[in-house]
Specification:
heterodimer, A: mainly alpha, two-stranded antiparallel ribbon, 15 helices, 78% helix, B: alpha/beta, Rossmann fold, 2 domains, 6-stranded mixed beta sheet, 4-stranded antiparallel beta sheet, 8 helices, 26% strand, globular
Chain lengths: 334, 262
């Protein structure tokens, strides 16, 4: 009897916790735990230099993850962002180093190209009604082929000085790419929370059929989100190749995995319909801190792959757990 | 134009591949009445209503709203003609609260280009609406994911009323509800009628219809059987027509449409 009473009370408590907040704070909590852990393991971890390094090394991941978040909140997925970066990267680099176009024009063409690649994804996903997972896996392979055909597997280096401003320039002492990532984060955060578009995006991810019946043009929305993803991925590409000061077709692939993991770790549900920019960034930083800390602790690169894979599994499992918990509360209230 | 019928559907046909879901169906809904739409599984009830709500396109036939010919191509068209449909699967967003659910697709906006949400007005209007309907929803900030079936139906109704729909279509609203919730909902539907709405109610629960409807429209195998005046028939009459069709003797003439169940 007593035990029953107790478990009822506990259930009551659990049902009162707002689960979406729980997830949001979990990421930030784990981030701090990891940071504490690594600062114990290595004296170099908690230095100003190392921490700013972590952030600047990850600005382009943040931008890609933000782009990808549009698609994921809308209930889709884009596995091709890595090869979009590869293609956009070599084209932009060649325009500058082989064809000697002005930097602004090369960037503009690169971003237009990236946006078009996103548009193509959107058109394919909406017209051939197959899983976006498969559709974008296919386009990824196509983009990879085109990237290597254009670059002929060459590496391009020595960009014009202006282009390096993207990664080395500073405004008021703050690295330009951090400012860029921050501006994008603020802009997108406003889009998600304050605009009709952001609202309908959450609706689309929450219940696609209901969105259609509510008069939302779901096809156009879907095309839009893949296009937006392509746009931000292209911007991230500029930062990435500027940072490396060199490009070839192997630059970019792999980013999709980190962005995807970061997004899920950051509370953007794999099923769509929820997500916030703050936790998304926390998700990117969590992976970054983990990589950096493991490096400093001398575990090497390969162990990181194993840990990242396990984190992705853990995050998806947690997402699923949360979903079921919500369902149970609903059943209980009936 | 003052016609007797607020909705008239004439000669509606719909096929899904080889299945003839609706055959030359005529329907007239009087202003301010509650009409039950009944028929066995696969009789075409939902299909007919989805054509009116813009979810499906008819292959043939015409629709008149207030005597004017209407071209309903999508849910938005139907909505602008004052038609709202509450779907069987409810079409609610579990990731949203009550107010957000009410306003999806018809958001209240602010700012010069109307790109920003006017959340304050949406919550205010949702609260007024819930109070006006006198339903047991405590707050417009309540998440619908944790609501009971009856409460969810009420949110769906609020959604329709918020935008001054004239014609409300409900697809099996009481199907998943317990006895007390169902009777609460029937009360609400009666209130909606008193507020001036014309309502069509798809249901399998014939007693519900006899309790609140003015007339009953019977479909069988995609064909119209008859429209019955509720105060002139018994439960048995309705059931018999649903099962056997218009010809009470169950003659083979009515079995033609039988194959097209789907």
């Amino acid at each position: 009897m007593d035990q029953n009473h107790l478990s009822l009370a506990v259930k009551e408590k659990i049902s009162k916790i707002d689960l979406s907040n729980l997830k949001k704070y979990t990421v930030i909590f784990i981030l701090f735990v990891l940071m504490a852990l690594f600062s114990l393991m290595s004296p170099y971890f908690l230095t100003w230099r190392n921490l700013t390094n972590i952030i600047t090394q990850n600005t382009y991941f943040i931008i890609v993850a933000i782009g990808l978040s549009f698609v994921m909140i809308g209930g889709g997925i884009d596995l091709s962002v890595g090869y979009q970066m590869s293609l956009v990267g070599v084209v932009t680099a060649m325009l500058m180093t082989v064809y000697h176009l002005p930097v602004w024009l090369a960037i503009l063409i690169g971003i237009l190209l990236g946006t078009t690649l996103g548009l193509i994804n959107g058109l394919i996903v909406t017209s051939i009604k197959i899983f976006p997972l498969i559709a974008t896996l296919a386009t990824a392979t196509v983009f990879q082929g085109i990237s290597y055909m254009i670059s002929k597997a060459n590496t391009f280096r020595s960009y014009p000085e202006e282009f390096l401003f993207l990664s080395k320039g500073k405004i008021l002492g703050i690295p330009f790419d951090i400012i860029l990532a921050l501006l994008i984060a603020i802009l997108v955060s406003i889009i998600y929370t304050e605009t009709v578009f952001g609202f309908r995006l959450l609706a689309l991810g929450g219940n696609e059929e209901a969105s259609r019946l509510s008069g939302i043009d779901t096809r156009r929305m879907k095309i839009a989100i893949y296009t937006i993803c392509g746009f931000f991925t292209a911007i991230a590409t500029m930062v990435m190749i500027s940072k490396a000061n060199t490009t070839n077709s192997s630059f970019g692939p792999g980013t999709e995995f980190i962005a995807l993991t970061a997004a899920i770790v950051g509370g953007i549900s794999f099923m769509g319909g929820e997500g916030s920019i703050q936790s998304l960034i926390a998700g990117v930083l969590l992976l970054a801190v983990l990589g950096n800390g493991m490096q400093l602790a001398g575990w090497g690169t390969y162990a990181q792959f194993i840990v990242r894979g396990m984190i992705l599994l853990g995050a998806v499992a947690f997402d699923e757990f949360q979903r079921n918990a919500k369902k149970m509360i609903r059943v209980k209230n009936r | 134009m003052n016609t007797e019928y607020v909705v008239e559907m004439r000669g509606i046909c719909k096929r899904f591949g080889g299945i003839h879901a609706l055959k030359d169906v005529d329907l007239g809904l009087r202003r301010g009445e509650i009409m039950g739409i009944v028929g066995d599984n696969g009789a075409g009830k939902s299909t007919l209503m989805k054509i009116l709500s813009g979810a499906y396109l008819a292959d043939e036939g015409e629709i008149y709203i207030d005597g004017q010919k209407a071209h309903i191509q999508n849910p938005q068209d139907a909505f602008s003609l004052g038609i709202s449909m509450i779907y069987q699967d409810l079409a609610l967003f579990n990731n949203f609260d009550v107010a957000k659910n009410i306003f999806v697709g018809r958001e209240l906006v602010r700012g010069p280009l109307g790109i920003f949400l006017n959340k304050k007005s949406m919550y205010k209007k949702a609260e007024d609406l819930v109070r006006e309907m006198r339903v047991d929803i405590k707050s417009p900030r309540m998440s619908v994911a944790s609501m009971s079936g009856g409460q969810r139906q009420m949110v769906a109704c609020a959604r329709a009323i918020a935008f001054q729909s004239k014609i409300l279509i409900m697809d099996e609203p009481t199907a998943a509800l317990g006895v007390s919730e169902a009777s609460k909902l029937l009360g609400l539907i009666r209130n909606l009628k008193n507020m001036g709405l014309s309502i069509m109610l798809i249901t399998q629960r014939i007693p519900d219809i006899l309790a609140i409807a003015d007339r009953v429209f019977v479909l069988k195998g995609g064909q119209r059987q008859d429209i019955l005046e509720v105060n002139k028939v018994t439960l048995d009459d309705v059931v018999t027509m649903i099962v056997k069709g218009k010809d009470r003797n169950g003659n083979q003439t009515l079995e033609i449409g039988y194959k097209s169940y789907g």
